């Protein structure tokens, strides 16, 4: 039985990866940060199937302890301050976790279990102000956020340890991947949650920033499969994982509303632009300048040719299916929330 250690196991990718590894017969360990209240996040349904270890990416002693306990064959580093917008507000914390944290886990592996295979979660945000379209493994990097800069350090230190110490280390340069388990602070979940609430009459409208930014979107389940495939190869290497398609945030909005029977029509320009319900004329989307980034990334489009050829990896969930799954999941969550509130109110009224 192989053993795997996942940092960031409670997040979107960590939970899907844990499910995948359990299905493949792995003994799965996960790192959690100690909090005053235990929060299992997206692995609530797996908490009895995985072995959890308290550690922190900024504390190398705790990471050494985690490697000693788990003795992993494979380590997947998915822990990060992963919200790009917050990286301008918390640049030092972002660097501590996303840059130095990678160095810490690599040092822990090197000194305790140097034969373990290591996966680093790199990101398309490292391309930032893109130097060529589409972006592939050889495209020059130009990050446009503290998050992208920190992730670039993590990417290069992973490559450096491979070349310096002959360790099996890989980086997956993953383009935007979403799911029903995405946090509400991310634009895709912000959209699908708002669409569900507007449809069910508990929210008036949605406010966003740059809706013409273009992204390459896929589903997290497809992308964690690529992570696993990278660590099964004879020779470690870095791979771009992407759909090979780009869509505007505007398209994501339109498709999400279409799934609940609402057609969006646009009028106005810039911060004065609004999206209206075609049937009623009601404004359901507004532009708010506070959601613009200090330095915008306008276009991301990945070239997954290398991954398709070397890993035999293919995307299985389409962009349209991704949006549909997220909207349907949020409709179910909001309905449950409404029913719970109504039950509470009825119970209170009978007292």
Automatic annotation (TrEMBL):
Cofactors, names only: NADP(+)
Catalytic activity of the protein: GDP-alpha-D-mannose = GDP-4-dehydro-alpha-D-rhamnose + H2O
Domain NAD(P)-binding: 5-326
Domain of life per record: Bacteria
Keyword Transferase set for record: no
Sequence positions that bind NADP(+): 205
PANTHER family found in the cross-reference section: GDP-MANNOSE 4,6 DEHYDRATASE, GDP-MANNOSE 4,6-DEHYDRATASE
Protein name according to UniProt: GDP-mannose 4,6-dehydratase
């Amino acid at each position: 039985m192989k053993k795997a250690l996942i940092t960031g196991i409670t997040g979107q990718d960590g939970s899907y990866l844990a499910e995948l590894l359990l299905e493949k017969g792995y003994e799965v360990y996960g790192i959690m940060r100690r909090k005053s209240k235990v929060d299992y996040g997206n692995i609530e349904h797996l908490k009895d199937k995985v072995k959890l270890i308290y550690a922190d990416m900024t504390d190398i002693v705790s990471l050494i302890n985690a490697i000693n306990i788990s003795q992993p064959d494979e380590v997947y580093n998915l822990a990060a301050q992963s919200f790009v917008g917050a990286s301008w507000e918390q640049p030092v914390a972002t660097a501590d976790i996303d840059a130095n944290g990678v160095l810490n886990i690599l040092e822990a592996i090197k000194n305790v279990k140097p034969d373990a295979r290591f996966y680093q979660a790199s990101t398309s945000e490292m391309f930032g102000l893109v130097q060529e379209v589409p972006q592939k493994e050889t495209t020059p990097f130009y990050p446009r956020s503290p998050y992208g800069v920190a992730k670039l350090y993590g990417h290069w230190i992973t490559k450096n340890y491979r070349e310096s110490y002959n360790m099996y280390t890989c980086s997956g340069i993953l383009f935007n991947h979403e799911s029903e388990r995405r946090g509400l602070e991310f634009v895709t979940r912000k959209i699908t949650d708002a669409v569900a609430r507007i449809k069910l009459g508990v929210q008036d409208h949605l406010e966003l920033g740059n809706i013409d930014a273009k992204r390459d979107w896929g589903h997290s389940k497809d992308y964690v499969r690529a992570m696993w495939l990278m660590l099964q190869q004879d020779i470690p290497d870095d791979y771009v994982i992407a759909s090979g398609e780009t869509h505007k945030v505007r398209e994501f909005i339109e498709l999400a509303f279409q799934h609940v029977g609402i057609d969006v029509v646009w009028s106005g320009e810039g911060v004065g632009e609004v999206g209206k319900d075609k049937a009623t004329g009601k404004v359901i989307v507004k532009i708010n300048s506070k959601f613009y980034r200090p330095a915008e990334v306008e276009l991301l489009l990945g070239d997954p040719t290398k991954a398709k050829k070397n890993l035999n990896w293919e995307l299985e969930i389409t962009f349209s299916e991704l949006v549909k799954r997220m909207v349907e999941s949020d409709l179910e969550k909001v309905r449950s929330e409404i029913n719970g509130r109504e039950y509470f109110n009825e119970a209170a009224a009978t007292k």
